[in-house]
Design goal:
alpha/beta; about 45% helix; globular
Length: about 140
């Protein structure tokens, strides 16, 4: 199987965390934060990332309630993922992102980069957590 680049997005109303990885190494890396104060800004930022990294597929975190139920942000993330798939003409996988931000904050704290001063790092690290989970699941399935 040929290694493929995969880009992940941790969708949020104000910020979208971005991570990149590949199926060959199975390792995800935090990349950047896109300001997403409007749908156009979110799409422009995501398109720019896709043009730079040329992924074979995209992963979008799906925010679910702790009990697995859906809510308004779930609907918005689904809508973003569908629009992104159409715009990029790429397959999009939705991945349960429950507790990814809490995991990202803990990782940053453990690395001495926690707290308000490093808040901007949470978004791309949350995307990394989402993407790493996806890559791990793909590896287990193959």
């Amino acid at each position: 199987m040929t290694a493929e680049t995969v880009v992940a997005f941790d969708y949020g109303e104000r910020f979208i965390g971005v991570a990149v990885g590949d199926t060959g190494t199975g390792i995800a890396h935090p990349l950047e934060t896109i300001e997403s104060r409007s749908r156009d800004a979110a799409m422009a930022g995501a398109t720019r990332v896709a043009e730079e990294w040329k992924p074979a597929r995209v992963v979008v975190g799906l925010p679910l309630a702790l009990d697995g139920g859906e809510h308004e942000m779930t609907r918005r993330a689904r809508s973003f993922a569908a629009a992104l798939g159409r715009r990029l003409n790429l397959p999009v996988a939705l991945v349960d992102e429950r507790l990814s931000s809490a995991d990202a904050e803990a990782r940053l704290r453990d690395a001495g980069r926690g707290g308000r001063r490093h808040k901007s790092l949470v978004h791309p690290v949350a995307a990394q957590v989402i993407l790493q989970g996806y890559l791990d699941e793909q590896r287990r399935a193959s």
